[in-house]
Fold this sequence. Notes:
The protein is mainly alpha-helical.
Amino acid sequence: MKPVESLKRRTTPVVEWALPYWNRGKAGRETPEDLFRLLYLGWLVAFSFKVLGASWDVSWHFRWLRDDLAPPHLLNSVGTAIALALTIIHLYTGYGVDRTAQRLIGWGTGIFLIAVPLDLINHRVNGLDITSWSPSHMMLYIGTFLMVCGVIRGWFMGAPAGRMRTLVLGGLFVFLFENVWFPAQHQEYGVFGIAAWDRGQPEAEPILLQFAADQMGRAVDRQMVVNFSLPVPDQVYPIYAAVAAMIVLVFARAMIGRMFSATAVISVYLVFRTLIWPLLALADFPRSSVPIFLIAGALAVDLAFLIRIPVVRALVGSLGATILVDQALRLQSVAYYTPPLVTPMTMLVGGLMLAALWLGAEWASTRHHLRAQDMDAVVRATATP
């Protein structure tokens, strides 16, 4: 049988199954169970490609000059293409999402697609732009953040109660955490880059170091490598850990609703980071510090949910998470490369910011029914004859 005929024979049943669903509808329409599962399986595949590509991309840019068609970009683009197709399906048919989830996915995908050409233009105009914290890069993260939030909302609202609902929701929060934490990886790779320079074995290719030095208008020396590797203030990393990382875990714990949900999410993320570490090393790509210290903050978040009063939970949890993140980071720095440490006053600022966000999260999760027990009650009520 010819390849074309074989492909046609295999795709025809799929097209015949899917075609009846391809009709315009409003968000929130009843979605057949098999279609719902297929849509969210597609999202898991899309995010997996994006995470693999992004993880390789950080290491790639600490070794080589930027290339639009670099393998990590192509791998990431596969995930983006799948995500775009799924977004179109949700927006056109209304299947698998309520109105809020549909808007989040649509806006997130739109911002991401706008950011891609802006990032290309930025690189053409400004050159290397190695920092993960640049405006065009932040637009990519924000777009992906909204996209993943929309998918989490869609699955949270539409999936039937049970183990599969919990596992997929946990997996989606791992993807959300990876996206939020992604810019902080710059500092984690940066400290390894500086250490490699100090050993006399720089990981970056000479052409990359020279390009960065020319942009800074100075010679290729240690200070240039430091500026290249740690382009943001030292305070950014620990504050980001105490605020951005922890608030994602707060929502994960509230929406998954199982004890140690936050710890499980961060543990899966750290296992992934740990597994790709030797793979990058074997391929002779730069490695990074792995933020093992975040487990301490996740435990503090999980334990805080034993407190039933929301305001007290937010205040006590913020205090505990900030202290444990700070102390665990200092402990990790003794035996392992970490970004530069800061004074306790810096962490106090982070703790106050986390407290404000956690209080807001308590209000939002109650107002918009974003707690696992609230959704389980809705599912039970709907299933009751």
